[in-house]
Structures are given as structure tokens and as C-alpha cells.
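Exercise 7.
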Amino acid sequence: MLVRDRAFFASMFLTILADQILLFLVPLVIFQITGNVAWSGLAFFFETLPRYLTFPVAGILCDRFPPVQLLRFSRLLRAAACVIGISGQVVFGGVWWLIGLSAVVGILTTQGMLALELVLVRAFSDQRFEKVASYGQLASQMGVMLAPLVAAYLMIFWPWEAVVVVATALFVLADVAFMFWPGQARMETLPPARKQRHPVADLKHALLLVWRLPGLMRAILQASGVNLIIGATLATAAAMMTGFFAQSEQTYAWLQVGGAVATLAVLSLTAHVHLGLATLGRTSYALICFGAVLTGLGAHPLIYAAGFLLIAGFDKMFNIYVRTLRKEIIPPEDFGKTTGVIICLNNLSQPLAGLVVAMFAAGDDARGVLLGLAAVMAVLGVVTYRRR
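Solution. The predicted structure, written as C-alpha cells, is:
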């Protein structure tokens, strides 16, 4: 599979590399300008809320249009958004251009993510989905691992605007690589579609499926708990490392790389060792919660780093658990719209976490907020895993 579909995985890698460069820049540049972690939390809120609110719309589009076309459009439009954002910043100035750019790119990333999910389901039906998802995550994590280093070391020599230009070029290269993928011919055709409903009716139908299909609501609550921690960690990591612990930007970048390496190790385990679905979910949830406690203690940079690595590594194991569960439960003809609604509900806790950071964190110290959110995650876990 890796040899046959190398162009596909190369395209994934380049796309994620560009996305993660932009994600790395936002909290770091905001904190450098303001010196306050609350501003980073507020920027994270404005960046992530539009991204996750658009998932239901993206899911409906995926059920109505070819996912390969949507995947390419989202990638090229991200490149165009980078050009417009940097042009506006050069002409008018101000950090809000970076926040706006991130919000627009995030919305387009939403469409790309859902289209990619459908491509994985339809073009790799001859493979075990857990294995396909793990290899896809491995390609993504290579981009996640390299992006902080690329961004941090480029910022030594260039302003952050130039680093965004590099991300623009990577989006274009990713689309070029995708054009060489022969697997587009393997895309499974779905059964003849029922009469198309109005988009609002599609949304209502998806919400009804989420409520009625067994196991989905429980998984959504669990994912919301995980994403509270992911959101708080993403919003505060730059401030905690470069501010509270007084480490350099390069040290912060290496922490991000360490998180990507931890994820690669966990994904390799998931791809090659057959673990039950329930085991995947429980193990990853418990270790993410423990990692959140370590980051909230904030006793030493190494303790914080250990917690960060647990959160980063086992987030993707939990992600595979949720994606596999969705594939097993949701009917194929409703997969796009229902998945869009589920991902929206799963991830609304991320911008909420950013808002909590903005309201309650003080200066560069977010320890109290991190511990409080870890407690919320623990309560959600106890409630949902006891309800079988």
C-alpha cells in the first residue's frame, strides 16, 4: 500500500506540513506581541470556532460532490488565502491578519479533512481501515513533526510573513503530488442516491442519526473531553514554555517535535498490533487525562514535557478509535453529513477551552486552568465509560 499509494501519502504529508506551520505561528506570534497567554487563548478561540462550526456543511457537500474534487479545491484555496492574508498584512499591518488567515485556512482545512476521510473509506476498501487510518496518521505526523522545526528555524532568518509564503508553496506542491496518484480510479461508487433533500433536511437527518445510532453520543462526550485538553494545550503551550518556563522558541519547537515522535510511536503500535476497539478508547482516554494533570502541575519543564508528550501521542490513538467506530456504525450513504455533525460536536470544546484560557489564565501561567479542565475530562470519562 505504501508503494502503490506513495503520491497520495506524499500529498498528505505536504498538506499537513503547510497546515501545521500556520498553526505553529499563530500562538507564538500572538504571545510575542502581547506577552499575555490570555490573548493566545482568544486567538485560538477565533481560529477554531469557525473551523468546527463548518463541519456539518462540509459533510453535506461531501455527500453531494466528488470528494477528490473537494480535496483539491480546499488545498488550492488555502494557498490563495495565504497570498491574500499576507498581502493584507503587508499593506495594512496588524496581527489580526494572521488570526484572520488562520480562521479562513481552518475552514478550508475542515472541508479537506472530511473529503480526505471519504477518500480513505472509498479508495482503500481492500485494506483494514485501522491500518489505513494509521498509515494516514503516520504521513500526517511526519508533517506535524517537521513543521515546528521548519517554522522556528526559518523565523531566525526571516519574518513570520515569509514563513507563511513557504506554507503557500507547500500547499501547491501537495496538489501537484496528488495529481500523480493513480488511486483516484479505485474510488468506490456508491449505490444510486435517494432523492436529494434540502441541506437543512440533511442536517436534521444527520442529527437524528447521531441521537439514534447506538454508541455515537457516548463517543461524542468522550471526544469532547479529549478536545478540551487538546484545545487548552494548543492555546497555552507556547506561553507556558517560552514564558512561564523561560525556554527558547527552538526549545518549544523541539517539544512539538517530541510530541510528533510520540505520536509516530503510538501510531506504529496501533498499525501493527491488533488491539480491541474498546481497549484503544479506554487506554488513550486515561493517558491523555493523566498527561493533562502533569501539564497542570507545572512543577518543572520536564514534567510539563512528559504530560505534553502523553497528550500529543495518545490523542491520535483516540482519534483512530473514534474514526473506526464511526465507520462501523454510520450508513455509507449518510457518512459525510453525519461525520460532519459528529466532528463539529466533538470539537466545539476546543474553542471553548481557548475561551476558558482567555478568561481565567493569568499572564503566562495557565496551570490552574489546565488542572480544572483535566478534572472535567476525568468526570466525563467516569460517566461515559460506566454507561454501557
